[in-house]
Amino acid sequence: MNELPLGLAAAARLIAAKQVSPVELAETALARAARLNPELHAFIRLTPDLARQQARAAEERQMAGTLKGPLDGIPIGHKDIYETAGIPTTGHSRILEHHVPAQDAAVVRAWAEAGAVTIGKTATHEFAWGGPSFDLPWPPARNPWDTSRFTGGSSTGTGAAVAAGIVLGGTGSDTGGSIRGPAGLCGLAGIKPTYGLCSRAGVLPLAHSLDTTGPIAWTVEDCALLLQPMAGHDPADPSSADRPAPDLLGGLEGGVKGLRIGVIRHFHERDITASPAVRAGVDHLADVLRAEGAVVSEVTLPPLTDFHFAGWLILMSEAHAVHEPWLRARFNEYGEILRERLALAALVSAADYLQAQRRRRQLCQQVAAAMEDVDLLVTAAQVSEAPPIDQVPKFAGLESPGLTMPFNLTGQPALAVCTGFGVGGLPVGAQIIGRPFADALVLRAGHAFERATNWRAKRAM
Amino acid sequence: MPEPMPEPLFDAMIARAGLVLTPAQRASILDASRYLTAANERLRPQDQVALEPATVFRP
C-alpha cells in the first residue's frame, strides 16, 4: 500500500470489511510521513511506537469482530497544542520545547478510546497565533498543493498532513479561523464547532472566550465522524455546554431540500473583495445547494470590519492575559512574530476590551435576528488562494478583515468546504454557518454539497 | 488608517507590561498600534456612556 484510502470514511469501510489492516494503514502513514515530512514539515514529532501499539490493538479488535466504531484503526495527527501523556507538547514554541504532559487532553483521550491511531504531533503557529515563523525550533508547515505556499493557520501541520494524505484526519483549534483557514487553503473540510460543544481541557489556550477545538479531514463526512466523539459536556472545561451530545451522524444523509440558506454576499464582495475563484466558489456552493432543493436568498449582517475589530481586541487581550508571565520573563524566547503580536496586545486596555465585548453582544443579537428567516448562512472561507509562505505579513489578520472571525465572536458552528481550484491550481473554500448547536445541520449541508460535486476526487500529492 | 498611538502612552504601557524593547521592536510595534487606534475608533460608542459593556454579573 503506497497511499491511504481517499478519506476516513472510505478507510473505515475497508477496515470493517477486513479488506485493510489498521497496522497496514499505520505503516503506510508512517512511511508517507518519512518521505514527505522533510519537505512539508507537517509534523514536528512522529510517534511511531505509539502508532504501532494502537494499530496492533485495533487489528486485534478487527480480527475479533469487536471494532469500536468508524475511528478504530484510523491514522490521525494531533496539533501540538493538544497535550499528550508522556509525549512532548510544545505549542511549537521554544518556551515549552521540553514540556511533557502527564495526561492526555480530553479530545486526545476521546479519540484514543474510539480507537484512533496517533501518528504524531502536527505543526502549529507558535501557541496557535505566531506564524508562519522561521525562527522557531521547527520550521513552518508548507502547503501540499504548492510547497512554496502558506497552509493557512494556525492548524498548519494538520492541514498539510491531511492534504498530503499522511493521516486521514487531525485535531485543530479555532480562535479566529485556525481550523477553517488551513481547511480552505489546503482544499479540505474543517469545522469550528459551536463554542462549548467540545472540551478544551488539556489544550494550550489562546483566548478563552473564543477558543474551540475541532477536526480537519478530507471530507465533511470524515469531520462528522471525528467530531462525534469530541462532542459532549466535560466538567473539566468551564466553557463546556452542559447539554447532551448531539447525534452528528444520524441525519447526515438528509440533504438540504427545503432548507433556507442566506448568502452573506457583502462579506466577500464588498466589505472585502475576495479573489475571482473564491467568489465563484461561493456562488457554486449556493447553486449546488439550490439544485439540491434549498431555498437560497441574500442576507445582510453588520459590516465585516465590526466583527474584525471586536474579535481582535478580545483575542489580543485574552492572549496577553495567558502569556503575560512568560512575556515578562522570557520575551526573547518567543519567535519574532508572536513576540511582537503579544507586545502589541499589551497595549489593549481593559476599557478597550470591555467595549469590544459590548459590541460583541450586539453583533450576536444582530446575527441572530438576521437568521430568523434562514437556517444556514454561506460566505467565503478565505479571501484568496494560498499566498507565498514567505510573504505573510507580521501582523497578518489585523491588516484587513478576515472572513472567519465573525463566527468565533458569535460562537456559531462554521464549516469550511472546498469549492474548487483557482490560480495555480490552488484550492479555494467557502463556509457554511448554522445557529448555535446546529452543528449537525451544518454538516448535513456540507455533505450534501460534497455528494453532489466531484472536488473530493483530486489529491494534492 | 489612523496614526499610531502617542509615543509617551505607548512607552508607558510597554513599561507597565514589563517589556523592554529594542529600537527595531519598538518601531515595529508602535507602527502596528495604528490598528488598535482604528479598532477603538470603530467600536467606542459616542456620547452613550451608560451603554451596558457586557459585564453583567448574575450571582
Would you write up a description of this structure?
The complex is a heterodimer of chains A (461) and B (59). By secondary structure, chain A is of the alpha/beta class. Helices cover 39% and strands 13% of the residues of chain A. Chain A contains 14 helices and eleven strands. Chain A has an eight-stranded mixed sheet. In chain A, helix 4 (106-113) links the parallel strand 2 and strand 3. In chain A, helix 7 (220-230) runs antiparallel to helix 14. The two termini of chain A are 15 Å apart. The model of chain A has no long low-confidence stretch (mean pLDDT 97). Chain B is mainly alpha-helical and 59 residues long. In chain B, 53% of the residues lie in helices and 0% in strands. Chain B has helices at residues 7-16, 23-43. The longest helix of chain B has 21 residues, at 23-43. Chain B is extended. The N and C termini of chain B lie far apart (42 Å). The interface between A and B is medium-sized, with 32 and 29 residues.
User: Average pLDDT value of chain B?
Assistant: 92
Number of strands of chain A: 11
Mean residue pLDDT of chain A: 97
What portion of residues of chain B belong to β-strands? under 5%
Radius of gyration of chain B: 15 Å
Largest interface: A-B, 32 and 29 residues
Q: Total strand count of chain B, please?
A: 0
The low-confidence runs of chain B, each spanning 5 or more residues with pLDDT under 50, are none
Structural class by SSE content of chain B: mainly alpha
SS strand fraction of chain A = 5-15%
Uncertain residue ranges of chain A: none
